[in-house]
Amino acid sequence: MQYQQILDTIKAESLIRSNTGEVASYIPELAKIDPDKFGMHLYCINSGHYGFGNEDERFSIQSISKVFSLTLAMTLLEDELFERVDVEPSGDPFNSLIQLEYENGIPRNPFINAGALVIADILVSAIENPKQKLLDFTRKITGNPTIDINPKVYDSEKKHSHRNASLLNLMKSFGNIKNDIETVLDLYIYQCSIEMSCRELATAFMIYANAGNTLSDNIQVISPRKIKRINAIMQTCGFYDEAGEFTFRVGLPGKSGVGGGIASIHPGQYAVTVWSPPLNVKGNSELGMYALERLTTLTGFSIF
Amino acid sequence: MQYQQILDTIKAESLIRSNTGEVASYIPELAKIDPDKFGMHLYCINSGHYGFGNEDERFSIQSISKVFSLTLAMTLLEDELFERVDVEPSGDPFNSLIQLEYENGIPRNPFINAGALVIADILVSAIENPKQKLLDFTRKITGNPTIDINPKVYDSEKKHSHRNASLLNLMKSFGNIKNDIETVLDLYIYQCSIEMSCRELATAFMIYANAGNTLSDNIQVISPRKIKRINAIMQTCGFYDEAGEFTFRVGLPGKSGVGGGIASIHPGQYAVTVWSPPLNVKGNSELGMYALERLTTLTGFSIF
Amino acid sequence: MQYQQILDTIKAESLIRSNTGEVASYIPELAKIDPDKFGMHLYCINSGHYGFGNEDERFSIQSISKVFSLTLAMTLLEDELFERVDVEPSGDPFNSLIQLEYENGIPRNPFINAGALVIADILVSAIENPKQKLLDFTRKITGNPTIDINPKVYDSEKKHSHRNASLLNLMKSFGNIKNDIETVLDLYIYQCSIEMSCRELATAFMIYANAGNTLSDNIQVISPRKIKRINAIMQTCGFYDEAGEFTFRVGLPGKSGVGGGIASIHPGQYAVTVWSPPLNVKGNSELGMYALERLTTLTGFSIF
Amino acid sequence: MQYQQILDTIKAESLIRSNTGEVASYIPELAKIDPDKFGMHLYCINSGHYGFGNEDERFSIQSISKVFSLTLAMTLLEDELFERVDVEPSGDPFNSLIQLEYENGIPRNPFINAGALVIADILVSAIENPKQKLLDFTRKITGNPTIDINPKVYDSEKKHSHRNASLLNLMKSFGNIKNDIETVLDLYIYQCSIEMSCRELATAFMIYANAGNTLSDNIQVISPRKIKRINAIMQTCGFYDEAGEFTFRVGLPGKSGVGGGIASIHPGQYAVTVWSPPLNVKGNSELGMYALERLTTLTGFSIF
User: Fold this and answer.
1) CATH, domain D3-299, list 3.90.1520.10, 3.40.710.10, 3.40.50.300, 3.20.20.80
2) Where in chain D does DSSP place strands (E)?
3) Predicted-assembly ipTM surpassing the 0.85 threshold
4) What is the pTM of this model?
5) Would you tell me which residues 216-275 of chain C have a C-beta closer than 8 angstroms to some C-beta of chain D?
């Protein structure tokens, strides 16, 4: 089958599926999203763009932004970064304080909230105006200067950030947060409120499929060695407590967000994104998981 | 560099490295192994065999056997197998009862001890004489009818199996063990006491690199779809509490054993095995981890 | 109010109360008990016996036997006993393996299952024919040679002991069980299947209220110092995960069993027992807890 | 022996004991205390005051203040208070976030930090100027208007309160903190920095031994029923992870603080306090524990 045929098949199959997920409700602004939004976009190194549905409508990328902040931090720092955050999968839910307490304030990986907060702290230490820099970085790898945050989501998350403030205070007590808690929390909330469409997100994720280079203008954003490491972390840690399931069923590195988006890549082949707001009990887009499983099944190949 | 050059480089680098690991001592028979044993074998789909050191000396494969028992079980059963064992990485040490208790007797994955014991229980239910059948299966994929267990290791483990008996009793209390505990434990200990050399193990692991086919006589042992799933589980769960680190540093699916062996594969490319008895604090061969990291660094490619 | 008036009041109040508890069902033989059984017996040092309801019907004392086995062990050993079992309350349910694993096989206290199994192991090491000896000890402090086990309960528990076998194997792997697992488990199940009435149990518990002496024939069974220590453990650990609640509401040392019995004492004053099979979610007799709370409220005094 | 003789004996025994504890160092101001300070004061309902050593030197009462804040809250509220904080012992260290996360933001008891912070939140909601009110309450039960905080300790703790801020944020995310985090934290730090001598503390604690009445001027501060409940909580939860050990060895309700103080009572008999800064590994005064154990051993009676 051709890629567009495969995507059409996935769309058709998905629309007749009963979806039992629920839209994230812990942030009021996210709870307002139409649960029927559904879009997918596939960007192949060799053959360009394919897609369907709401592929051009922007949504809140939420935790997918953790990949961008990690990437920016890795362009600035070498492996010393991994003395402050580990690369092991976490068996616990995404905002758990438990492992953090047992492991003396060193988060399990950069994609659980605690780890992303440490990355935010590293960015605050390393660069001036990290909010603007991170937004600029996202615009650069997307090749689109109009990417921006959603100010309503930003304000809404500001009011519901006690859990992350708890994580920051705990890590600060262990000495693993260096800057002012409010500043670090502000950067983290800012990055989570960035909005992108499936097409934009697939374009940005092309650097992970293309050895660190943007495809359109061929800029080397980060080294191939570092891209491999980021992909490895996405593989084992990209889906909270369901990373094994995603690896098992889909077989590609990827990262999900509670806005209902998933971005995934096949190194050397393509970047793919899907958006459907209802989440399964593990916090990942239910239809998005299904669509990506069908993609690797119908194409017949994954990284394994 | 050519493959043999790469292996020679790894050997040279490894020999001047100070090794801080310790040989597994919880089973007396394993504690007797010469810690200086060191061998590596690379078996490429396109270009055959490369190796060095004690590559032809047999050692106790221990937990690497869990890959073979899972594979045999998956040839007999479809996805209902995964109702009794999950595919998620475990943040806890390999014999932990904690997650098992929280999760009502469903092990996190088939490569922690609890999960491998459930697989053993499944084999006891599904086939007659499972010990012989599992040995035959191992001989078949290796193409070598002389593969066998080490009876001293088998006897030694029999006397030190209270931890596994504890896991079995706990899972039986949750209804997730169907057969007699002694029978299941016996099969498990039997499989762990199989001995193979690096060369033999690389030959056996070729089915995971070669879409389910043996390379020498091209027998389809298991479907490509199932092989992908086993590889995915090896990627996220193959190294106890260090699966993320292995994925991060090496970037290949693999499985380690406390005998000091590691078997790993690059799908479509090669199977590779290394043996060095001293283990790091996470229970994986210290030098083996290093050798495989150097392999993907020097060849310049992993699955990511 | 006089004691008998107080008991009559408790009976009247209890009978009009809606009871939401459920009879223990994990052992089939226990599940057969009539949930409406209800008896209470108060044995005062100064004024003798008071009671009502099914106070003379024997029931399975279950975990209340842990007090007798600990007492027998403490008559045989000094404080070295507490190197193998701690005296701290456990925040986890009564058969939890979690704390045991974190704390290297040393149970939190002698009244959780793991701790009682260590005490059973100590008795197996210390005396010949410990089953008979423990029964004899119970008969002696009760002054009643007809006390015996219920063989149906004994047989029924034998078939449902995987959880305790799991605990024993785990502790054996840590070196904290010295004898054969089957032998220790057999003693434990035997002691749990002892049957006594409220009157008999209050008579036996008089040694804890009366500084180690039986009241009828004034035999010093154990020293006052040791009785104080047992009472202290009953206070902090006698009610699984509800020890604080019992101390808070009732204010007396005591021990409950899943058969629906509770035995409690006021040092220097009385022993009191109550039996009502339906258990609350924490595994303690719901009506029994209420009756004892009313007793200390209506008498106006507890140990605090 | 007479009480003063007993105290003299304890003093003599204590001075020749080797003390392996360490002065609390997590707050710089506390770390400056002379480790050789040692005082004890016994205040008997029937026979007045006894003491020795630095019994009249004020020290930081720290967590002992949790008893006063709970008492004040219980004078203002009925049992609805215990919907927001439980009364069960905690198996974990005093500032653990783990149980709090498992138990949805309801602290195990009012004497772990999380529970004391909920009590502080309750006081902030219930009264105006809670800092002054709590200080006034302490002065009233002590009969001494000069009791005050140590401003250096107060300032020092302000700078080292990330762990408590983490607890507050976590509970706020569960809805169990109603007021501004800074305000609640400020009250908590304020109460911990109150300074009292052993004599003053024993005088204040007399209300717990004397059914809620001050002894000197016989003011009913709180009802006997509520005092019994506070004493019960002190018994099961007063010594962090060592409450069972204290109950076992000493057999009295009490509360310790990291400043090295312990206050304890025998209902109907006496209040007793001891101060020695070096703490054991569980965070309780090492010599204080010993002195109180000797007191109940030499007097020959405890509540059990």
Assistant:
1) 3.40.710.10
2) 39-44, 48-53, 59-60, 148-149, 194-196, 254-256, 261-266, 270-275
3) yes
4) 0.92
5) 227-229, 231-233, 235-237, 241-245, 247-248, 251, 253, 267
